[in-house]
Structure formats: structure tokens, C-alpha cells
Amino acid sequence: MLQYFDPKKDINPDKDYGTPSSVNTSANLEAAELVSINIDGQDIAVPAGTSIMRAAALADINIPKLCATDSVEAFGSCRVCLVEIEGRRGFPASCTTPVEEGLVVTTQNKKIAKIRRNVMELYISDHPLDCLTCSANGNCELQVVVGQVGLRDVRYGFEGENHLAAKKDTSNPYFTFEPSKCIVCSRCVRACEEVQGSFALTIDGRGFDSKVVAGQAEDFMDSECVSCGACVQACPTSTLMENTVIEQGQPEHSVVTTCAYCGVGCAFKADLKGDKVVRMLPYKGGEANRGHSCVKGRFAFGYATHSERVTTPMIRDSINEPWKKVSWDEAVTFAAKRIKSIQHQYGKESVGGITSSRCTNEETYLVQKLVRAAFGNNNVDTCARVCHSPTGYGLKTTIGESAGTQTFDSVEKADVVMVIGANPTDAHPVFASRLKKRLREGAKLIVVDPRRIDLVKSPHVETQHHLKLRPGTNVAFVNAMAHVIVTEDLHAQAYIKERCELEAFERWKSFICQTRNSPENMAEVTGIPAEELRAAARLYAQGDNGAIYYGLGVTEHSQGSTMVMGIANLAMLTGNVGREGVGINPLRGQNNVQGSCDMGSFPHELPGYRHVANDDVRQQFEQHWGVKIDNEPGLRIPNMLDAAVSGSYKGLYCQGEDIAQSDPNTRHVEAALSNLDCLIVQDIFLNETAKYAHVFLPGASFLEKDGTFTNAERRISPVRKVMAPLGGKADWEGTMALSNALGYEMNYNHPSEIMDEIAALTPTFSGVSYQRLEKEGSLQWPCNAEMPDGTPIMHVDGFVRGKGFFAVTEFVATTEKVNKHFPLLLTTGRILSQYNVGAQTRRTPNSDWHDKDILEIHPHDAEDRGIVDGDLVKVKSRAGDTVLTAHLSERVQSSVVYTTFHHPESGANVVTTDNSDWATNCPEYKVTAVQINKVTETSDWQQDRQSFSDKQVAYLHEATNKEKS
Amino acid sequence: MTSVTKSTVTPTLYIPRDTTAISLGADNVAKVFEHIADENSVPLHIVRNGSRGLYWLEPMIEIQTKRGRVAYGPVTVDDVEDFIASQCWLENENHPLYLGLTEEIPYLKKQQRLTFSRVGIIDPVSVDDYCDHDGFSGLKEALKGSAQQIVSTVTESGLRGRGGAAFPTGIKWQTVLNTPADQKYIICNADEGDSGTYADRMMMESDPFSVIEGMIIAGLAVGANVGYIYLREEYRLAQEILNQAISVAIENNYLGKNILGSSNNFTIEVRLGAGAYICGEETALMESIEGKRGMVRAKPPLPAAQGLWQQPTVINNVISLASVPIILSKGANYYKDFGMGRSRGTLPFQLAGNIKHAGLVELAFGPSLNTLLQDFGGGTRTGMPMKAVQVGGPLGAYLPESQWQTALDYEAFASIDAVLGHGGIVAFDDSVDMGEQARFSMEFCAIESCGKCTPCRIGSIRGVEVIDKIIADSSAESLLEDNSHEKNTELLEELCETMIHGSLCAMGGMTPFPVLSALKYFPEDFSNSPVNAAETNSSTFNSAEQV
């Protein structure tokens, strides 16, 4: 008898089993009861709750189906999967009929064949017969089933009532809706509901008039559709089809790889024709995304072949002259010479590097290795500095590891979810969909955010408590939460006693119990009504599994690290670390921000978060690398910039990072960059930072190289090359070339060799190799002798630190205060369609949704200033000013304004200040005191930037022309 | 106006407030009675009772006499003045509208009124009246025993779902009782949409407390404390009466918390549908209550395991629930002793269509269909020969005369591919075109299909088209030339087979029954279409709707 035990091993992600598994994790499976049935003479045992269709598919008996697909629950509408069951009347649908012990099922006989054929005859009587020229030709489930049932004649003719004249909807830039091809199977509608959770699609009308419509029967673009593409993927015909497939035809092979957008790290099948990506399909085998994706990952890949890609190395003596296109050799030789001469003149410490959170682990590792070995200092930092550095610091201090504690699957077991300073539906959409699914199942939600994010209220999701705190008061909030839990005796005393440092706990307890931390006293600071906060605290403490998910709204503050510790305290206090469904979950902004931190990108840490002052660790690296490593931490990004302004720091190697746009206080960054003698930028586009560069090394997109990314759940996933690097070298090869030119030899033939070196030197990675990744699909670190299959959930038997540490988290208000000159607080964030500095997404039709950054302002604040929707307004802070278009919105509370930073010309970071986290220097992006007033033209900075940018683009074009002539 | 003798006791006059009676003028009759009596200072106590169900006699008014209630009808407003003048409340045997003792009218006397025992007798919203007629004694009995005892009594009574599917009510209840859940629900399916049926409406308008009592008992039986009555939107009067009765029941502690001093709670909410026939299908109905589009769910899971909001739910027809109180008060055996075979108890048949004596006839299962058509119905209203009878609503087969001897019994009907369903009987005289009727069945399905499953969504439309082709192709020429008539008939039969076996619910699964029966028993109507068939047919339906 066939038995199916391990869903991970026995399931082929490329096969559609018709209905979802009744158990999705090995843990659930262990508990599941197995039921034996006989299908077409074959015995098979499957977990209870499995459909007959799925059981059959597991035994490779493939029952024809149309409305069933294993990403959504069985629906039972198409009626082609009918079977006969011994002792039962009629012909039950195999998709909606669960297995029962001893059932004897027949999937094929004459009677069944006749019904199926006659049902298909009905379908085809209302379907255009243009199969040969249809975009689904070669991949059409309707065609397949018609073939399977042997339909030879449509006796009804084609003159009857039909939908053949239904109009196409081409409003979405990525896919076309062609309702004349629709078979009304509702798979798109159900995918939108069950998978994405947007409820943007519905069936309108009834009977023969039933049709799929978006929103209130409007165009897809005008509806609530977020263009995640789940409907397109679910469609069995060409009714919802990617425009790329319509234009180019069906792909001929595919490669599984990992998305290069946010920290969810979705697995994708890149569907290809030769080396051209036809479409990206979220991969069902991907454990982070389980077959789902968002508008960025699925559709916004066109930037990789955008005409603005710079694919030739370039050099120039000064930023005031045109670029010269050169060979790689010439470029790295030029760069090495300059770096050497800077170090000769200004000292070894006068140069440094910035690793990229968008490049692979292997590439990041190489850049920090280059800095430490070839530059000979520790001046390496990464963009995590400006996002999640407080996470590293705060979690290391309290629980002992700089990473999230869970898997994304874990949310399926959560009972109470607290989202703090994160906007998952925009920034981590796939996680948001999984969260919303759990919320629809009944889990409770607490949202802590100054702004009314979509999760507060969206279809079939409504938060129990939206704690609308004032920007900059996180720690006051988290202390008040803990105060309630301790003083109301809701804390997990046995858990604390067993797993935490008691002395520290007692110290912390006496601090937190002080009445100044009570919600009543903190209400004035946070703006959260005390009763609401108490209710939220009780809900979080008393739900079975309480999980915290947080984002940059936690870290990007002057007390970012304190807040992370406060969150860890809260989780330990309630016993919510160390099992499924709970945990501390930092939502990482960029695809590989976890990996870049893991890889030793910080100036004080070698790979695996080990301090450079640790002699044992340093010596291992010294031995392996054959160089001496400085035992003093190097410069952080803000220190580098300050030193550049003051003249002691002259050379920077910046890979895949755009600090001129992303870092705070743009004018300061620009001054620093202008002061460098050698800025080496390795990127796929001439980004804002590259406009200040002397050496440009063409970067490679994620489609052009092999490597690995590590997502927010510590999952190391393979990135696979589907096309040759347009610039001739993958980024790791570029770094190697530069290192070799600098005289420090690197000789890797493939990134797998770099991973082998990482594994040899990093205890948490010692079990990781490309062979294992190939076999397992992905691995979650720590992966070593102790945890050979990786570690989905951390701190299970105890904290990595040993005992959990309750750090005292005194609330200290930021110095960035409102006054009569700057009466409003500006906070910044992201939007769904754009990603970070927008270098990628702005070069795709994603800009159809968001073509410029706008300033959200509450109608009261707008009225006070005579501002109406659409007005140009100046946003002025102590650091600078910029001009944006105002949008009146009650999403923001009065006295708070909000914008995004996706477009360089917006200058959002001209306004943000130098203030930063006390422990890690993570900038305080989320709190800037500003004044807003109506203006008629853009700011001086915007005009300066425009002319500078125009000049630099001209220099780029001149370089192009030179080569042509 | 002649002077009027004053009597010492105020005479009680019953004028029905039931929709049919009202549509035939009962409200106006009542108003005129009040007016004239007032003008002439005649003291009259007017009770607005429900209808007795003798619809061809409506508005039928009754007078309380020492001998019992005496009926007159049909009374029009023009009759009122004379009525008062001739002191009919003193029983005037010579009055042209005099019908004698109501209970002795053969149409009523020959019935076995169990479920409808109070209907037409009491004031529908008077809880005292209800209690005086044995009301709430079933509930009191139920409160004495355990949940299992209630379920067992209902099981033993042999009661089967009166909505049409005839599923044993006790087994359904047992499943819900056995399914553990924090919250369970009772739903009363009052989306009475079958053509020619009105028993639910009559029950709700004439004796709403029976429905309420049945729901409370169901709640006690399975451990549910929330009930919904899902009412078709056209039944506005029933809505008003139900809500009034619910308020009265709450005031008197039959509903709400600690019912009759027990620890049991029960609430009832009336929900209005939005005009979709398919919402009478139990799973679509629950979707509708949940605020979703009325679409049929696949089964399993059965509503008894996962029903409303995924919780175990008893969903029963109005008549099933209204039959429960008498089963509890008089015992399972009392009820079971009526009927035949596996069809126990009684069924309220509703005579409609082209029939002389349209009305409600509650009978124990067993007599032949012809008994109803002839003994009660009195043949066609037009006086023309009766040609076909549709039993069980628009999804029931058309029966030719040869089948009218069939016993009124679920199994007997099933054996001839017909259904008793909800007990609706629509008669047609020989002017009917059964080809058009078959087409209408498919058309009805096309209009009312929820659109979920393919055989129903597309099949019904194609069904109409194929029947049109069959009828159009029926000239002798085409019969000879290309066999298209024969081919299309075969296609229609195959389509019916596909719909029967392939449809998700009874809507698509049973639509073929009337079509196939028409094709089988009236093949001549598929070979030439009489010119005025459509008109004749629509007039038949209008009359069906009226009653």
C-alpha cells in the first residue's frame, strides 16, 4: 500500500494535486490519522481530511478537473471530477468528497466518461474555438480536459447564447482579462479571497449571466485589485494571462530562484525562453511564500533588461567630467591605484566599503573580506545600519541571537498577533496575505502604528486594537504594556523562572512596576488611551500563542535598540518565544538584509556576529585569509560620511546600495560623497550615489548570477543564474577582480566555493552547502552538526544566550521635538508597488500605481494651512526642505504627516535628520519635526539635484557616444 | 338601513388576515364591517384569524355561535350591509353565502389536521389563544426531558423533512446533537419558492407560534440557542406577523433568557431573502444569511456538521418545525400512526393551478393523488378535462392521468420518477402545451440557477435552446430529411441525464424531471406547437400564483 508521510518529500511542487493538503507541516502530519482507501484498485493511505481527488493524485491517478487547484479550497463547480463510490448514490465530486476508511472509488468508467464528455460539451458550446492562436495554447487546462474526455462534437452548435463578445480589460499593465475565454470556475475569485485576501474579485450575476468582475464591475486598475497575480496563476485558461506570455508565447523551461525584493524571500520559478524571462511564477515548493507572491516579485522584473542598465565599466578622474568606458581590467586597475594612493596619503583607515543587502551572501561576504583583507581595516558597513541594526543589537542582548525567532509558517499557529511599526500589506505583502488568512480563521490582531495601515481594517480583517501612538514614543508604549502584564499578574512566571536571568528580571520588574510606566501615566506621552492599552496588553498576554511582528517603525528611532529589547522583554515575559505560533519577528526590508548582517558586514563583527576583538575568532579568519585583521571596530556609515566631510576619509567601495537617496540628511551625504577622491560604485544603474562616483562597475541583477539570499526567517535560499551578466561579470566576480587588482588574491570559480569558506568559518553555517541546498530547497540557520536540518524555530529548549536577559528600557524622549516652528511630525514608509529607493520598480510599470511620492496630511492640519488635495507643499525640517504634492488623508492622525522615499526627486531624506539610535546609529527616519506650507515651485535642493542629475546623465551619454564614434 | 336588535353578548366575527384572503378582499371586508357596525352601533368583536385554507371560499368569515363556528363566503364588501341587516351573526341559514358549521364543511372535515390544527381558528398573534388550543404544551413536555429524549421522540415519530427532500428530521437533529461545538444554530427555511405552494406562508401567517415553538424545541434538542427564520422577501405580511409573535413570545418568556424559568435560552431573528429561488436550497440559504452571494455549497460537509458560519446547524422547513410541537405533546406514536410505509404523519397538500377548489388539504400519507384532485379539488376550474398535474414544485414531474392513482407517499412517487416535495399540486387542463411547459422548466432553471455548477449554468440555457429546436424542427419535412428532430430529442435526453448526475444541487439535478416526464408522456406536444400555447400556459401560472 502507498503511504504518504512527509508532505515535504512526497509532494512534487510542480504537480497540481487539485485540493490543498489537509496537513501542511510535518508536525501536523505526525498528529494526523491516516485513512486507507482504494482507488481504481490501488490502495493508498492518506491523512484524514484529504480529498479523494488529492489521494488519487498522490497515487498518480489523475482525475480530470477544472475548478480545482491545490492553492484554493475545493469548490465542486465544474463537475468533471465526478467519480463513483461503491455503496453510494450518484456521482460525487472527488474534489469535495473527503476520504473515508475503506472507500472503494472508481475514477474511470463508461458512465463517468459520458457525463464528463457531456459537461465539456456544454463548456465548449460557450467558448471561442481559437485554440491555435490563443495565448494559453500549450498550457490550457480546458484544452487538456477536452482532450482527456475525447470530445469530438458540440451538438448544441455555436449559435446559442454565449459570452464570445465580452470585452477585454487591458487596464492592468501586466495582465489582460479576456472574459470571452472564461469558464466561470471561480478559481481567480477564490485565489483573490483565500490566497491574497483582497476580495477584489467576485462573480456578478447568476446562472448563465455569472461573470467574473473586479470591484464593483470596474476595470482591474480601478478596483481594489493589488495586482498580486494570484488570479492569473489560478486561471486555467487564457482569461487572465500575463501580457508577456501574450506577447512572447509560452516559456520552454524554468529555473527556481529567490525573489530580490523584500525580506520575505519568495521562491519563484523563472519561466524562460532561452535566457529571456517570460514570467515569474511563485513556486509552490517555496516555504517562505507557499506559492504566493506580490506585484513586485511576480511582475516587476523588467528592470533587469531595462535600457538604462549600465553594462560597461567606466572611470573618470573627477565627477565633473564625462565617463570613459573601459575594460574591467582597466577599471579595477584604476580603482586599485586610487585606493592605494589614498591609503598612502591619508592612512589605512581612510577607505572603506559598504556591502549590499540586495546582493547575495557570497557577494556580501566577499566585500567585507575585501575591506578587511585588501583594505586592511574594518571600515565595512551595510544598509542594515539604516534599518535593522537595532534588531541585531537588541535581540543579541536579550535572547542571544541577531535574528527573528520563527518561520513564516508559524503565523498559521498564532492566536494573537501584534504588528508594531510595520505595514505588511505594503512592504511584506506575501506575509501579510498569510497573516490575513490566519486572522480570517479567528486569530486576534493588535496594530501599533501612528498611521491607519490597511491591516487595521480590510476585507474580513479588523484589528481588535489599533494603538495609534505618537511617533517617537514606542518605548513608552512597550513599557506600559509590560507594566500592565506584570502588575496584573499576567506574566508567565514558570517560564521566566526556568529560562531567564532572575536577578535581571527582578531588577527590570521593579523598574517596570513603577507607576510612571503605567498606561495612565504614559497616555499623555503616547496618545494611547490607557484602557485601550490595558485591553491590548491583556489580549496579548492571555492569548495562547502571542506573536510579535515588527518593522522599521520600531528600529528607526533614537531608541530603536531599546524598543527591540522592550519587545523581547514582552515576549519573554509572556512565554512567547521558543515554539510555533509565537516569537519575535523582525520583518526585514530587503531581500538579503539578514544575510548581509550574518556575513560580517558590520564594522565590529566578523561573519556569524562575532566581535573583531575576539582573538580566537579573528585568528581563524586570519589563518584562512592569510592576513592580519584589525582588532578594533571600523567606521559605521554615518562615521564614514562624517569623516569624509571632515576630510579624513577619501575612498569608498559601495556595492548595490544607494546611500545618496536612502540615507538621512541628503545634503550631508552629498557633501560627503563630493569630498571623496575615489568612489567605486558597483550597481546595475547609474543611481544617485553613482553620480558622485569615479569608478562604475556594472552590477548584475539577481537573474544573472548564482548565490544565496537569507530572508527574515533565516532561510538561506538559492539564487540561480538564468542569464549571463549583462556587464560581463557577476558582482562576486567584480569584487574578486578589484581585490586582485588591489593585490589581495581571490580565486573562486563559483559562489559555492565562497559558501564553503563561509561554512568553514561560521559555526551557524557549518552545515550549509550548495549540495544540501539543492537537495533541501532551502535551509534555516543555525545549520550545523547540532541542527543538521537547520533551525526553523529558535530558542526551543532555552535561549541562545543561555538565560534570557530582561534589559531595563527607560523611556527617553527624542531630541527631535515639535515646537512652534516645526509643529508636525513627519514619518516615512513604503508603498506596495515601489521598493526602497525605487531603482528597480521605478523602471517597471509598477509606477502606474505610484509615479511620485506624496505627502499624506490630515485634513485638519491641511485646513489650518489652507492646503487642498493636490497642492504643492514645502516640507521643512531642521535639516532641510523639499517640496511634495499633498494628499489629504485620515490615515494619518492630526499633527502627523507621512511620505515615502521611492523617488529620488522627492528628497524625503533632505528633510530627515542626523538623529540616530543611541546604540547602533540607525537613523531616526520615523520622527522628524516639520512645518508644511503651500508653495508654487520645487525646492532649491530639488532644482540643484535636477541640474546635477541632468549633468551626470549627460556624462553617461557622452561616454556612450564616445565608444560609438 | 334597517334598525338592528342589540344583543347582550357581543358577537365575535372572524375575518382572515391571511395573504390570499386579503388579496381576495378580506381587509376591505373587515374595514367595511367595522365601519357599518360602528355606524349602526352594532357591537361586533372582529378577530383577524388566519385562513382555514378553503381558498375558493375566501374571504370566508366565521361567526361564533353556541353550536360552534359558522362560515359564510366568499364575502365581498357589497355583501356586508346586507349581512349586518340580516343579522348573520345569529346564524342565518338562509343567507346565500351561508356555509354551515365550518368544521362540517366536507373539504375541511375530511382532512386530518395535525400540524394545521390551529390554523384559521386562532388569532395568530395571541399567545393566550395559542395556549388555549394546546399551544406550548410540546415545549413544556420537551423541557421535562433530556436533549436526547427530544431527538429520540422526533426520530420515532418518523417525521421527514417537509421542504421536499424528505430527509428524516430526527437523524438530522441527532447529528447536530452529536457534533460538539460552542455555538449551534437552528434555521427555519421559510424561503417558500415552489410554484403552487403556500403551506409555509399560511402556517407563518396563521399560527406563527407553532413555528417558534418548533424552533425552540429544536434548540433544546441539539443545544442551540440562536435561531434564524429565512423568509422570502415577498412574504412581508408573514414577516410582520412573525416579528409580532416573536415579541409576544419574548414578553411571555417563551423566548430570550431562561425560557419558562429553565436554564435554556433561545433567540430568533427573521431574515429576509432577496428574491433568489436558489436561496431556498439550504446551503445557499446559509451563504445568504452570512451576507454572501447565494451560492450552493458542495456537500459534505453537511450543514448538520458545518452549517451556518461553519457551526453545526439544524436547517428545517417551516412545516417540519411546526409539526414538532404536536409530536412532543401527543407523543411519537400518535403522529406515527398516521400515514403509510415510510411516510409517517401528514402532509399539507396545496391545490393550485387550474383547479376548482384551490386550497390547503392536510392529509395523512396514503390516499391517491386523484383523491386530492377530484374529491377535494373538484376537477379543473375551467371545466375542461384535466391533462397534467405537476406535483412538488417546478422541479417535480408532470404526471399524466395514468399516474393519478399513485398513492400520496414519498416512495410511491419516487418509484415513478416523481416527487411529493413540499406538497404543491398544480393542475393543468387540456389546453396546456407540454412542450412549452418543458421549455418553461429549463427556462426557470436558467433564470434561477446560482451559476455555480456547469450542468445547471450552461445546461439549462442549452436545454431551452434544444427544446426550441425540437419544436421548430417538428415539421414533417425535417423529420424525414435529416433526423434533426430525433437527434435533438436524444441530445435533450442526454442533457437531462448530465444535469441529473452532474449538478451540484437539486436545482439542476431535478429540473430534468418535469422535462423528461413531459417528453415521455406528452410526446405529441413536442411535434407541433399550438399558436396560443404560451398565453394559455401563462394564465395557468397566474392562477397558481394567486392562491
What is the fold's blueprint, element by element?
The complex is a heterodimer of chains A (965) and B (547).
Chain A: E1 2-3, H1 7-10, H2 26-31, E2 34-39, E3 42-47, H3 52-58, E4 84-85, E5 104-106, H4 110-124, H5 141-149, E6 175-177, H6 187-196, E7 201-204, E8 211-214, H7 230-234, E9 240-242, H8 243-248, E10 253-258, E11 267-273, E12 276-282, H9 295-299, E13 314-315, E14 324-325, H10 328-346, E15 351-355, H11 361-375, E16 380-382, H12 389-398, E17 416-420, H13 424-427, H14 429-440, E18 444-448, E19 457-458, E20 461-462, E21 465-467, H15 474-487, H16 493-499, H17 502-512, H18 519-526, H19 530-542, E22 546-550, H20 552-555, H21 560-573, E23 583-586, H22 593-598, E24 605-606, E25 610-611, H23 615-625, H24 637-646, E26 651-655, H25 659-662, H26 666-674, E27 678-683, E28 695-698, E29 707-710, E30 715-719, H27 731-742, H28 751-761, H29 770-776, E31 779-780, E32 824-829, E33 854-857, H30 859-864, E34 872-877, E35 881-888, E36 896-900, H31 908-911, E37 928-934, H32 940-964
Parallel strand pairs in A: 1-3, 2-5, 15-16, 15-26, 17-18, 17-22, 18-21, 22-23, 26-27, 27-28, 32-36, 33-35
Antiparallel strand pairs in A: 2-3, 4-5, 6-9, 7-8, 10-11, 11-12, 13-14, 13-28, 19-20, 24-25, 29-30, 30-31, 32-37, 33-36, 34-35, 34-37
Helix pairs in contact in A: 10-27, 11-27, 11-28, 12-21, 15-18, 15-19, 15-21, 18-19, 24-26
Chain B: E1 12-14, H1 19-23, H2 26-39, E2 45-47, E3 61-65, E4 68-72, H3 77-85, E5 98-101, H4 106-109, H5 127-132, H6 137-144, H7 147-157, H8 169-178, E6 185-190, H9 199-206, H10 208-222, E7 226-231, H11 236-251, E8 267-272, H12 282-289, E9 313-317, H13 318-330, H14 332-336, E10 339-340, E11 343-344, E12 346-353, E13 359-364, H15 369-376, E14 386-391, E15 398-400, H16 410-415, E16 424-429, H17 434-448, H18 454-457, H19 459-472, H20 476-481, H21 484-502, H22 506-510, H23 512-521, H24 533-546
Parallel strand pairs in B: 1-2, 6-7, 6-9, 7-8, 12-16
Antiparallel strand pairs in B: 1-3, 3-4, 4-5, 10-11, 12-13, 14-15, 14-16
